[in-house]
Amino acid sequence: MVPEYRALLPGVLLAELDPDVRPARRTVRDWVVDVLAFLFSIIMVLVLMAASDEQGVTEGTLAIDALLGLACSVLLWGRRRWPVAVCLVIAIAGVYSVTSVGAAIIAFFTVAVHRRFPVAAATGVFGVAGGLVFPVLRPDWASSLFWVDVVWALVVTALILGWGMVVRARRQLVLSLRERAVRAESEQQLRVAQAQQMERARIAREMHDVLAHRISLLSLHAGALEFRPDAPPEEVAEAAGVIRHSAHQALQDLREVIGVLREGGDDDAPDRPQPTLADLPSLIEESRQAGMRVRLDREVPDLAAVPVGVGRNAYRIVQEGLTNARKHAGGSTVDVIVAGAAGSGLSVEVRNPWPVGRATSPAIPGAGTGLVGLTERAALAGGRLEHGRTASGDFRLWAWLPWPS
């Protein structure tokens, strides 16, 4: 049995299959069964004592027989912990004692239920062998035909063994079904946790892509105001308006992400529309308004014809490329190339000259995980992504995404 599921199952059921597992204490059902078994054994002692008295058994023999029967009845209280040992002791006592028959039946039935068939069968053979010795020690109870006693011993042992095996098989089935239910519930919880983790990772990627773009625009405009304090009022007002708009959008995006991550959020709330490749011209224009020099080479006639999932990934790659260009190559011209067709795939390229000399403005901090996230995004979409310095000295970010026909 798988260890992680054993701890979730009741000890009483585990004890049915594994001899090394002991329930910590008897349940109410166990107490009821044990009391009834003890009373049954005591009643058998009284009945067989009365029968022995009618057959003229001597008082000394009857007293020894009764004491052995009572002792075997008391031993039944330990049958759950030591079923085989208790059964063997009672079988030894049964070689002489008639009144121990009730205790012997219960003890052997317990072995048949709680132990595997080879162990139960060997215990039954031991009991039958003791039954063969009984007519020699107690001829007052022996049948006139020896083989009749042998047949009865075999039949009763086989019936008890078969009954015990049926009960054991049923309990094994119940335990197996319960274990499957526990495993299925645990696996379902694991799948839910994995789905939540994947969703949180997806949200984290979106947050990085969106907020990095917004905040880099804020930094760019704020830097322009800092280095040009004597700019005309119209330009200052325009830059301040862009800063206000970008800050508002960044706060809105951040509020939505936090709302999704917060436990107990409204799962039925509609998601904010995600950008597609048709929104790429707006992204380029937004970057141009921030002072970037961006050239767009669009070789796809209809950007809206690109599938939504492919277009969203392409949009995020271009967005991250522009953000990186603002961070590390401010003032340079950035080329954005979008090409491809249905069936052959969609390629996206963002290229800018490698920065030379000392930066003219403070560097925009970054976590350094943007390209890692883009690589993972492209791989999950079934594509590939490359980035690095080219032979001509440019920094090139290139990705290919599958575009089904």
Automatic annotation (TrEMBL):
Signal transduction histidine kinase subgroup 3 dimerisation and phosphoacceptor domain ranges (all copies): 199-264
Q: Which GO terms describe its molecular function?
A: kinase activity
Q: Which SUPFAM superfamilies match?
A: ATPase domain of HSP90 chaperone/DNA topoisomerase II/histidine kinase
Q: Which Gene3D superfamilies match?
A: 1.20.5.1930, Histidine kinase-like ATPase, C-terminal domain
Q: Please, which domain of life does this record's source organism belong to?
A: Bacteria
Q: Which residues cross the membrane?
A: 31-51, 57-77, 84-111, 117-137, 144-166
Q: Which InterPro entries match?
A: HATPase_C_sf, Sensor_HK_TwoCompSys, Sig_transdc_His_kin_sub3_dim/P
EC number, UniProt record: 2.7.13.3
**What PANTHER family does its record include?**
NITRATE/NITRITE SENSOR PROTEIN NARX-RELATED, NITRATE_NITRITE SENSOR PROTEIN NARQ
Indicate what this protein is called per its UniProt record: histidine kinase
Origin species, per record, is: Phytohabitans aurantiacus
